[in-house]
């Protein structure tokens, strides 16, 4: 876990935020790592672990990473809001890919959805309600989506594109969401 967190943080730390010791006094022995250098580094690491938002993002991404590559969702074609709405209006239902892992966490900006190792920040009440439904692995239909909420529609289109959602088309269906 520590290695995963380190990698996550390494992707987010800019070059000028990496370790430097320019403000430390030179030790008498050039090979010595001083107590001051150790303490400075320890304090920087503790500060990183104290950032609850970053820690939450890392943890949610970690626990939703696909564990079985053979079940991982494949990217699909882009789906427009119009295509999605037409599909839902025609009594279509969307299902979660059985190999996908979904979870959510409250945040100061609303709610974080974690889906197969990625995260989405959502703030509208409708999108937050949709996220909770998705994490219960319940089908999504026209009754469970606020069609006036762009954030909910954007999320569904993105999850369809990533292959985390799909529709079950029957032989009688003329129209299917391109997933």
Strand content: 5-15%
Overall radius of gyration? 22 Å
Q: Write the CATH architecture name of the largest domain.
A: 3-Layer(aba) Sandwich
Distance between the termini: 33 Å
Helix share, percent: 40-55%
Report the CATH superfamily of the largest domain: 50S ribosomal protein L16 arginine hydroxylase, Chain A, Domain 2
Question: Which secondary-structure class do the elements indicate?
Answer: alpha+beta
**How many distinct beta strands?**
5
For this structure, the CATH topology of the largest domain is: Malonyl-Coenzyme A Acyl Carrier Protein, domain 2
- Given the structure, what is the number of helices? 6
Arithmetic mean of pLDDT: 82
Shape by Cα distribution: elongated
What is the CATH first-level class name of the largest domain? Alpha Beta
**Widest sheet, order of strands:** 2-3-4
Pattern of helices and strands = HHHHEEEEHHE
Number of domains: 2
Characterize the main sheet.
Answer: 3 strands, antiparallel
Low-confidence stretches: 170-174
Could you give a quick summary of the protein structure above?
This protein has 179 residues and is an alpha+beta fold.
Secondary structure topology:
Blueprint: H1 2-12, H2 35-50, H3 52-64, H4 81-89, E1 94-96, E2 102-107, E3 110-115, E4 118-122, H5 125-135, H6 150-161, E5 165-167
Antiparallel strand pairs: 1-5, 2-3, 3-4
Helix pairs in contact: 1-3, 5-6
């Amino acid at each position: 876990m520590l290695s995963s967190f380190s990698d996550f943080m390494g992707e987010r730390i800019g070059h000028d935020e990496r370790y430097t010791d320019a403000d430390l006094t030179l030790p008498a022995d050039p090979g010595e790592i001083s107590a001051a250098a150790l303490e400075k580094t320890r304090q920087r690491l503790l500060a990183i672990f104290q950032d609850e938002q970053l820690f939450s993002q890392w943890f949610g991404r970690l626990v939703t990473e696909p564990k079985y590559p053979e079940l991982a969702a494949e990217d699909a074609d882009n789906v427009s809001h119009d295509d999605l709405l037409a599909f839902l209006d025609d009594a279509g239902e969307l299902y979660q890919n059985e190999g996908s892992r979904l979870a959510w966490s409250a945040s100061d900006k609303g709610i974080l959805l974690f889906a197969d190792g990625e995260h989405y920040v959502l703030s509208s009440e409708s999108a937050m309600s949709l996220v909770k439904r998705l994490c219960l692995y319940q089908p999504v239909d026209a009754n469970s989506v606020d069609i006036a909420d762009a954030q909910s529609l954007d999320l569904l289109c993105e999850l369809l594109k990533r292959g985390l959602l799909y529709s079950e088309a029957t032989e009688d269906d003329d129209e299917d969401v391109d997933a």
